[in-house]
């Protein structure tokens, strides 16, 4: 269901066919207070090797992962600034929420990077895997061509989220709450098990849901 419209190129496919002109609904997460973490100290750059990080300290100067394999321990990660994956970087995490704080924060996952993230199934942020500050109008660009997997809601109510350059993002449960969604250059976003009962699913619907 789309409040606005849908623009497709001649080769683009959307299944099922989007329902356009749908009645606007209230933000399903409007009453949820965003995470806070005033304890700065998370490292700005992780380059090379394999490492594990934890959510205790906020990443107040952004976070760039370059040519490294990084595991996120369970928890809420507050990133203030740019969150970048480059040069084949890969990230993993179960029971994770990544919160981009501030009006100037953004995501840029370069080509040939990968990620595998799952939202928590319990707690106040159950079911949300990526959250962009409600004040943030920056675009979020995802070019990860392989290993793109994130189970949970993408919540970016004021931002455009773009999947570019043959990105394939597949998960059993997919929920998107964004200002605008764009898929370019043979990118694909696919719910592999849309009938599954997802944790904290919007309105309890057992089907893919786009709130735009």
Characterization of the model:
With 212 residues, the protein is mainly beta. It has one domain (45-211). The chain has strands spanning 45-47, 50-53, 63-66, 69-72, 75-86, 90-93, 96-109, 114-118, 128-132, 140-142, 148-163, 168-171, 174-183, 188-191, 209-211. Residues 203-208 have low confidence and may be disordered.
Number of domains: 1
Distance between the termini: 8 Å
Give, in order, the helices and strands.
EEEEEEEEEEEEEEE
- What gyration radius follows from the Cα positions, in whole Å? 16 Å
Class by helix and strand content? mainly beta
Query: Counting H and I runs of at least 4 residues, what is the number of helices?
Result: 0
Average pLDDT metric: 83
The shape is: globular
The total count of strands amounts to: 15
Portion of residues within helices:
under 10%
Question: Low-confidence parts lasting 5 or more residues at pLDDT below 50?
Answer: 203-208
Please indicate the percent range of residues in DSSP E strands (runs of 2 or more): 35-45%
Largest sheet: 13 strands, parallel
């Amino acid at each position: 269901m789309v409040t606005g419209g849908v623009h497709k190129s001649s080769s683009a496919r959307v299944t099922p066919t989007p329902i356009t002109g749908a009645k606007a609904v209230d933000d399903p997460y409007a009453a949820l207070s965003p995470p806070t973490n005033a304890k700065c100290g998370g490292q700005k750059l992780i380059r090379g090797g394999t490492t594990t990080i934890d959510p205790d300290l906020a990443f107040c100067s952004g976070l760039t992962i370059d040519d490294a394999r990084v595991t996120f321990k369970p928890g809420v990660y507050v990133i203030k600034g740019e969150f970048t994956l480059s040069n084949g970087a890969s990230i993993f995490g179960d029971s994770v929420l990544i919160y981009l704080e501030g009006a100037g924060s953004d995501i840029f996952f370069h080509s040939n990077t990968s990620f595998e993230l799952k939202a928590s199934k319990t707690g106040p942020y159950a079911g949300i895997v990526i959250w962009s500050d409600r004040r943030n109008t920056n675009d979020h660009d995802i070019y990860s061509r392989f290993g793109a997997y994130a189970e949970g809601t993408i919540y970016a109510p004021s931002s455009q989220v773009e999947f570019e350059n043959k990105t394939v993002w597949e998960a059993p449960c997919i929920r998107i709450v964004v200002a605008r969604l764009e898929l370019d250059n043979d990118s694909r976003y696919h719910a592999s098990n849309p009938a599954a009962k997802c944790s904290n699913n919007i309105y309890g619907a057992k089907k893919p849901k786009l709130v735009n």
